[in-house]
Amino acid sequence: MKMRAHHVAKAAYACVEARQNEPNKKKYGAIAHKLPGMILQNGLAQATGFLLAKGAGASEHLMLLDDLKEVLRAGGTVTVTSGEALHREIIAADLAKTLKYTRAALEASGWIKRYVQGVLRVTATGDDSGEQEG
Amino acid sequence: MHARLFHLHTLSALHCGTGRSVGVVDLPIARARATQLPIVPGSSLRGVLRQEIGARDADLERTLFGPRTIKDNANSFAGALAVGDAHLLAMPVRALAGILCYVTAPFILRRYARDLADVGLTTLEIPSPANREHALVPTDSVNLLDNNTLVLEDLDLGAQRNALTLEWARIIAARVHPHETSGQTDFIQRFAILPDDILGYLSETATELRTRISIDQDTGTVKKGALWFEEHLPAESVLWGLYALSDSNEPGKPKRADALAQALPASPTLLQLGGQAGVGRGLVRLLTQEVAA
Question: For the complex shown, is ipTM > 0.90?
């Protein structure tokens, strides 16, 4: 038997590692750092809606939404196959599902953020952590 | 050992943290491991009380908290004051009507009632919401829309006015605002008992999150990587806990617990608890008027 957190972590690791050679990986990393805070401050629907809206002009937002969907799928929270479908699922959710999705999304975004720091080496301000002073 | 009850009322955002975390928030607040409900560790409160009391009476500090340094066994003794963790009793949450609502849940009230009974104070039956999508509010609540809906953050809950909920609101309000009628009224009209699940959810997602940065002195812009999230218990939160006083253990200086209780700071006392004091966080009122029967 495998712990649920390990399924989620494994998926998050794979998603973030796949962004290693993306030209906008620093922007992706900066948004990934902010995603858990965004969910807490604005709610899951607003946060995913923001990623969807901003994605039209800045693809790193859609990349992150897609990765969030992948990690939620791995944890068995949703079965949707696209970032947009994830947002639709979230805004259609009843109270019980909203509680469940929010907790799962916080966990998933926490893992993504952790691997952005550990694998991509991108800081919260979108800088390479190797360039940090001190 | 005389168990006594204390309450904390936060006047500004309160950050009693656990250091840098690997979770979703960089600097989270302390929470009970099993319930994930916010707490203020007894050690935080004890340390602040020691500083407060020690500044005006070094002998009393020694009696209550024990010696600061222990040179040998002959001069060591246990302090007479034990301070437990403070647990969340009611948390202010954004409400569509009435600006905010002080929320609690049957799970919390059961533990609060047990402690009230333990120190000999009156307690009541605990009402439970009809189901996980309904809340109970006092009969004169100002938080309802269309007389039957309570909107908290993004959650729409059915609501039922309830006399027992009013009585609980009065009990808590009287302890948090003992000499202030307007403060009691404000609390009572904005009180709600939520289903346990909803309270648990809000205690994790409706705490105050502050984004902080650090400025590079040379460039005047954000330092590389210096952006982080801090979690706080919002201002107007209410917590409760137990403390206990024993007779003095100090060799050659016998003092009765009741005499030591009289020497504690008058209630309510303004304290600064937790981190970020320099930016105005952590102002709390400590209320200790509840004496064991």
Answer: no
